[in-house]
Amino acid sequence: MNIYLAILGFATMIVITVVLLKKKMSILLAFTIIPLVAGLLAILITGGSPLLIGKWIEKGIGKTYSITLMMMFSLPYFMLISDTGLFDDIVKGIMRRVKVSAPIVCVLTVVVACICELDGSITSVFLITVPLMLPLFEKFHVDKRILPFLISVAILIMCNTPWNPKILRAATLMGNKQGAPAHLFIKLLPIQLFMLVLLIAMAVYFGLRARKGNKEEVTVSNEELLSQFKDTELTKHNMFWWNLLLTAFLITVLIAIPSIPQYFVFAFGLVVALAMNFHDLDQQGTLLKKYASTLFPVAPAVLLSGVVVGVMQESGMLNAMVKALMAIVPSAIGPYFYIIIALFSTPLMLLFTNDTWFYALMPLVAAFSAQYSVPIDVVIATLFMNFGSMISVIAQPQLYIATDLTGITIDEHIKFSFWKLWGINIVVVIFGVATGVFLP
């Protein structure tokens, strides 16, 4: 073991984490400059050629470019579909058929948030769900702190879709494995379904508790509910079934035919959806520019994360760090190290951003666990949810939107949600181990 490489590797992780936590540097700059400096220092330590760093970067970017391409087409596709009103029409269809009560309001919050998160934008989930459901929470006297909590967990659940930015980040850690996002989606599907059932049960409990505390019966008509939905110039109610069928077709192809590049599946979907819904070419161009702005800095950050991974792996830093950990962590704990990290992921996320969790911690834990024959997809699945991100404004600054719209402080959200999130975290890990999803 080269102890100097190990120290350099840990120092690189710490520096990236600290500068991002303290907002001293942008993600793009951190993922470009810091690994470059670390790579040059690694070359000095090992006595290699400075020209090697170009090859390391090329190998790293090779692991992330296809995922970045998929993100460039999948996110605009779902934003377009959302703008046409597909998700609104689904929610309205549900609301027409239910009699509203406090438990139903809480369950509807989960359903609406899950549907809104299909487009992969956490900001839009809060901007749509909170204003829609808050008047109902107030009318039925449901604790307002429950609203951002339920939405936050729903977002975590729906991050497991093959086109979601979070799962695309995780997929980059699997190298050039074909269909990595779909593979992770299928692996995590039992966890996703379990969490959905668990969250709905919690929503019902919160609603029943609120109804029990109400002194008089409260009623809301379905017309009052539906009146909160407003059409825009992009709404296409007449295209509902066509858009739904196209989306179902794309998801089916994505999962059933992994030999087709996933970025091409959504490229095809995007151009077809644009042509179907908006015949004017100028309008299509305007919409593409609008959606393109949402890709920055997420897509470039995913691409440049390959620089971090490439330099850490190819320079020998990651291997040296793993050997150092193996010398420290008792061999009896080694095979379960990733599970221990997962059990404490809620408080641990207060020390990380989403990017440093995926690109600094997870590669190290995955490489360490590989020494005990734990496959990388098992480690990624186990550490994927990082529940604590939904109480960390550093990892998820959109939480300020949720609390401001709800009318509570961020401190109130953290105090209300922390122990509940950690409890769900532990229950989910136990379920994953018991079902074998989180085991080799």
TrEMBL record:
Q: What are the transmembrane regions?
A: 5-21, 27-53, 65-82, 102-134, 146-164, 184-208, 240-257, 263-279, 291-312, 324-344, 380-401, 421-439
Tagged with keyword Transmembrane: yes
- Subcellular locations according to the entry: Membrane
What's the chief localization of this chain?
A: membrane
Q: Where does the record locate the signal sequence feature?
A: none
GO cellular component terms, alphabetically, are:
membrane
Q: Which InterPro entries match?
A: Cit_transptr-like_dom
Q: Where is the Citrate transporter-like domain?
A: 29-378
Bilayer topology reads: Multi-pass membrane protein
Q: Does the keyword Transport apply?
A: yes
GO BP term, example: transmembrane transport
Q: Which keywords accompany this UniProt record?
A: Membrane, Transmembrane, Transmembrane helix, Transport
Q: What is this protein called?
A: Citrate transporter
